[in-house]
Every structure is written in structure tokens, then in C-alpha cells.
Amino acid sequence: MSHAGFRIYTKINRPSKELVEKFRGLASANIADEMHRLGCMDARIKPMNTTLLLGTAFTVKTRIGDSLMFHKAIDMAQPGDVIVVDGQGDLVNSLTGEIMMREIMKKGIAGVVVDGTVRDVDALRQMNLAIYAAGVTPKGPSKNGPGEINVPVCCGGVVVHPGDILAGDADGIVVINPKDASLIAEKARVKQQQEKEIFRRIESGKLDFSAYSDEVLKKLGCEIIDDLWQ
User: Fold this and answer.
1) What's the whole-model pTM score?
2) What is the DSSP string of 103-142?
């Protein structure tokens, strides 16, 4: 008998804490730039508060409007994990709220990302826990299953594997393969320092705009017309 769709994998390959920490303090935009703007969850997945997200993906796939496996994941996840819930983008029933989030905080879990909805959002806004979701509704879930834990899921249009590194801020979330993580973090940190130099040049009035000069634009085929549009 096949149990596809209703099964739990108890083990995941977690990257080292040292590798995850390489992304501490890095903006999601700078990380994304060093991944050729791929691996970013789409704009549906929004932060519910201002707590920054950083941790290791612990994945959950649920039936629409059902939180049974989400509850089980809270019991299984470890400190530093980010519970990533593939709720199929459904906006009808919330999959979690304040009670579950308090359980998650107590366990030291790093954050929650739900491709679906949450509730009790006023309380969630006050929590020191990174919480992202596609929407908000007071209508709660059922708890009947089925679902899967620690399998590849789709969240915000991105495939997330158990053990992937997630980094998020007000701009959104980037999903990073641990195999690529060290180099990406190094390049993103360099880029962040380069941006600080650009900010300094802006303030001093010395920013170089030559890349956007009329000569460069003309070489690209741009027509510059010294007249009013009519």
C-alpha cells in the first residue's frame, strides 16, 4: 500500500550553524543579486512583523485548509529550523495563529513561512518570531490530514527542500541551496560593502553616471529628441 501524500520523513540534512550564520546581517536583495535573482519567493509571501528570518527549512505539505501535519511539524522541528508550509496558496482557511506561534517560540524555532493564511495577526505583529504568509483570515483550519513532512514543497513559487537555508527581511525571502551557500554569502557580503561605498558617493556628489550618458544610450540604439512630445 502506498502512503504517498500521508507520510513523514524524520531526518533531514541540516547545514551547519556556522554556514547558516554566514547570512546574518545580509539583505535579501543582495543575496538574491548573487543568485541571478532566482530563488526568491514571490510577493504573495509577506512578513507579518519586523523580525528577520534566518534558518534551515523544515518542510510541510498540507491538504488545503488542514493543519494536522503543521502541528506534528512543531513537535518535530528543532531550534534554528524554519517551518515552511505548502498550503497550496489557499486563502480560505487560516493554517495557524497565536497559539501555535507561541508553541513555536517556546521551542526556539527560527520562523514560519506559510503559503496560505494565518490569523490572530495583531498578536503575531508583536512577536519576536519571523512569520511570513500569503494572507490573513479569521477562519480556522481542520485537523484531519493528510499531508507530508520533510519532502520538497512549493512555497511562494519556489521549490524548497528540507535543509535549504532561508533568509528573509521586509523585502521577502530567498531560498539558498547549502551546497552554494558559502560562496553566495561571501559575494553578497562584498556587494553589501560596495553599496555602502555607493551611498557615500551619493552623499558626496561624486556618483559616476557615465553608464547612462547620452553617448552610451545612443550606442544602444536610443533616439534622443531635443523637442516636446507631440
Assistant:
1) 0.93
2) HHHHHT--EEEEEEEE--HHHHHTSSSEEEEEEE-S---B
Q: Are 85 and 114 in contact (CB under 8 A)?
A: yes
Encode pLDDT of 23-33 as tens digits. Answer: 999 999 999 99
Cell matching residue 66: 488542514
Of 9, 106, 13, the closest CA to residue 57 belongs to 13
- Whether 184 shows a pLDDT value over 60: the answer reads yes
Q: In sequence order, which residues have a C-beta less than 8 Å from that of residue 76 and are 6 or more positions away?
A: 8, 10, 58, 149
pLDDT at 6 over 80: yes
For the chain, where are the alpha helices, taking DSSP H only? 17-21, 28-33, 68-76, 98-107, 121-125, 178-204, 214-219
Ordered by where they begin, the domains of the chain are 6-187 (3.50.30.40)
**Under 8 Å CB-to-CB from 227, ≥6 apart: which residues?**
none
Beta bridge partners of 81: 56
